[in-house]
Amino acid sequence: MSKSLARYFSVTIRERGNAYADARKVRIVATNRNALLAMVLGSQRYAADIHASPGALSLSCTSPYADSAGACKHLWALIVHGEATGTLAPLLATAGATPVVSFVMDTDDDEDLDDFDFLSDDDADESLADDSPTESARSAHARIPSRSLGATPHPRAPVAPPPPVAPWIRVLDGARRQMHAAQPIAANHPPAVWPDDRRLVYILDLEASAAAEGVTIDIGTERRDRHGLWSEAKRFTLGAPVWFAPPDAVDRQIAELLCGANDSYSFARQRASGIVIAPRAFPITLRTILDTGRCRLRSSSTPAVMG
Predict the structure, then answer these.
(1) How much of the chain is helix, strand and coil, in % rounded to 5?
(2) Does the CA dihedral 205-207-212-214 come out positive or negative?
(3) Which residues in 64-74 are b (16+ Cβ under 10 Å) and which e?
(4) Which domain holds residue 247?
(5) How many structural domains comprise the chain?
(6) Where among 147, 176, 207 does a domain terminate?
(7) For the residues of 273-307, what is the DSSP string, one character each?
(8) Residue 7: inside a domain
(9) Which of 58, 257, 264, 289 is the most exposed place for a label (fewest CB within 10 A)?
(10) Contact indicator for 40, 78 with CB cutoff of 8 Å
(11) pLDDT tens digits, residue range 265-292?
(12) What 3-state DSSP class applies to 143?
């Protein structure tokens, strides 16, 4: 039966309720064929109740979440515990095969249950056998009318099952989780420091470009000597974090353009050379590189010349 009730509870709520049930945080206070009253012990203590009548099941809990949303983890923990111990089955027999399920707003104070003795599973079985309330149940009936075994609760409107989640929502939710998971990784990168005596250059490989469907670019650096002259271009070996931390904002923009939507650091570690700029990216990416004045041409006869 828990499968038929599961549609009223989100996956997250069911997982949390399962954890409560597995941790034996559900304590039965009173039970018979019409009602199941329990305390659920978590960070705080809440009273959870399932009430059965022919053709109907009503569920209530004193937690703030249940007050606003109805289907809470405490109620799901009670359902799981009740199914495992057999205390839920008599209520389901009373309600019938297809009961109307509703969630009840419970405004009573849990302090009234302080003196109740929790029932063991054997006590619950005996209570069901003679179909009469236990002493704790009679106390509950006398002192807590809205949660008593004989009282009729004030139901909310029947709660419809949540609508199926659209595929695009699942995709965005997955992307959000990936972004959240990636944040600590990015935070672990040491602060990148750009060397004062280096500048970025962009080496256009003529021969590789002739064989590619676009223009092949390698990232390189030139080093300034003590006389202020720049050395020949060398392959970039300073690491991905440094590539994305040059002093010139245009160079940082080019790094992002070349990496696209990929993870900048992981992409850059693999592709600091041999990056192919497709023709569709010529107007923006290639033009931005050429406008830096630091584009170099390379061929088998010319290692790297000013471009």
Answers:
(1) 45, 20, 35
(2) positive
(3) eebeeebbbbb
(4) 198-306
(5) 2
(6) 147
(7) S-EEE-GGGIIIIIHHHHHTT-EEEE-SS-S-EE-
(8) yes
(9) 257
(10) yes
(11) 444 444 556 788 999 999 999 999 999 9
(12) helix
